[in-house]
Design brief:
This protein is mostly helical. 71% of the residues lie in helices and 3% in strands.
Length: 385
């Protein structure tokens, strides 16, 4: 009887609905905040207050359709074709350098018929899939042989150079951190953290030192009030927005800083507008929601860590780490703890490429969860027989 009840429960809960529910809440909050934070700038630029909201909704719709398609594909397909996926990502990085659209001194966007696409977002997911497959094949060797790790330096060194040519320092550092986390999760010694992350940090530091534009951004981050109407303007306005929210905030739609005081408030600094409108209590609730969302992904990965599903588990660990790090970096930027990186707040900030690739990444997570539950269900059924 117990086996039958377990089988019925497994059939009912085909995916982690707590994870799905928290994801839908983030998406709903994101659309609400994009609409709220972009009303003034949409009206100024396009004489239409919902321009950015409509574009974000379209990108989200495309992302959800892509996610449904990806969810139907077995995880084994991605494990088999991980190399091709990574090579396609490198090709996109080359194409964006040749044909890309330059905005604010960075050439990061490929102009498509209906939107601009940012290949760096695709590369984040492609890198996770590639590393998950590589580590699954060399899981024992990675714990003892550093040469196994060094073999990753060629493909990821090339990827990093292509990203730095754009330049996109934030994505480069994020991918390096995610790959390192996946190495540590797979059992690699802690010293590999220094050997993999430090070269990237040193390279980025040198590029900042020899780039007056980047150096100005770092200096403004350290003391934005030194030049509050110049290099530090965006950060000071973001801090004003965050600080003025108080305990309970000004209320949805009542932000003052979004009225063209905080530049492009709907993008990387959307969190500051959220803090202004919902206050400390709202921010605390958002952090709890993100924490629960990331915890459920780690739970899926932990349940999937079986001898025949290590690729699936590493894939989910990679996606969960990607989301967690990007949340921390974005919050750090908004609160003046980190220099501006150009990384969105996952599922909330305006950015079509980001929301589409995150939806597809979550489809892979749900597929892993679905296959794991299916395996467990079959095991329960056989036990009942």
């Amino acid at each position: 009887m117990k086996a039958w009840l377990d089988s019925f429960k497994q059939q009912l809960w085909t995916v982690d609905y707590w994870l799905l529910g928290s994801l839908l809440m983030l998406i709903f909050l994101g659309l609400t905040m994009v609409l709220s934070s972009s009303l003034a700038i949409s009206e100024q630029r396009f004489d239409q207050s919902t321009h950015y909201f409509v574009r974000q909704s379209i990108a989200l719709g495309i992302g959800l359709l892509g996610a449904l398609f990806v969810f139907k594909i077995p995880i084994q397909f991605w494990q088999t074709h991980r190399g091709k996926l990574f090579l396609f990502g490198l090709l996109l990085l080359v194409l964006v350098l040749v044909f890309g659209r330059e905005i604010s001194g960075s050439k990061r966007w490929l102009p498509l018929l209906v939107m601009n696409f940012q290949p760096a977002e695709f590369v984040k997911l492609a890198a996770i899939v590639f590393v998950a497959g590589y580590l699954q094949r060399h899981l024992n060797a990675v714990k003892e042989d550093f040469n196994v790790i060094m073999r990753l330096s060629l493909p990821f060194g090339l990827m990093a150079l292509l990203l730095l040519f754009q330049p996109d320092y934030g994505s480069t550092l994020l991918i390096a951190a995610v790959v390192t986390a996946m190495l540590l999760i797979s059992g690699a010694p802690w010293r590999y953290f220094v050997l993999t992350i430090m070269p990237v940090v040193i390279l980025l530091s040198l590029l900042v030192l020899y780039s007056p534009y980047r150096m100005a951004r770092v200096v403004s981050f350290l003391d934005p009030w030194q030049d509050p109407y110049g290099a530090g303007y965006q950060l000071t306005q973001a801090l004003i927005a965050s600080g003025s929210g108080g305990w309970f905030g000004a209320g949805l739609g009542a932000s003052v800083q979004k009225l063209l005081y905080l530049p492009d408030a709907h993008t990387d600094f959307l969190f500051s507008i959220f803090a202004e409108e919902f206050g400390f209590i709202g921010v605390l609730g958002l952090l709890i929601l993100y924490g629960f969302f990331i915890y459920r992904m780690f739970r899926v990965a932990r349940r999937s860590w079986t001898p025949d599903q290590q690729f699936s588990a590493l894939l989910v660990y990679g996606v969960a780490t990607w989301v967690a790090l990007q949340v921390m970096i974005n919050l750090g930027v908004n609160l003046g703890l980190l220099p501006t990186k150009g990384l969105t707040l996952p599922f909330m900030s305006y950015g079509g490429s980001s929301v589409m690739m995150l939806c597809i990444a979550m489809a892979l997570v749900f597929r892993v969860d679905y296959e794991q539950r299916k395996t467990e269900r079959l095991g329960v059924t056989h036990a009942a027989e």
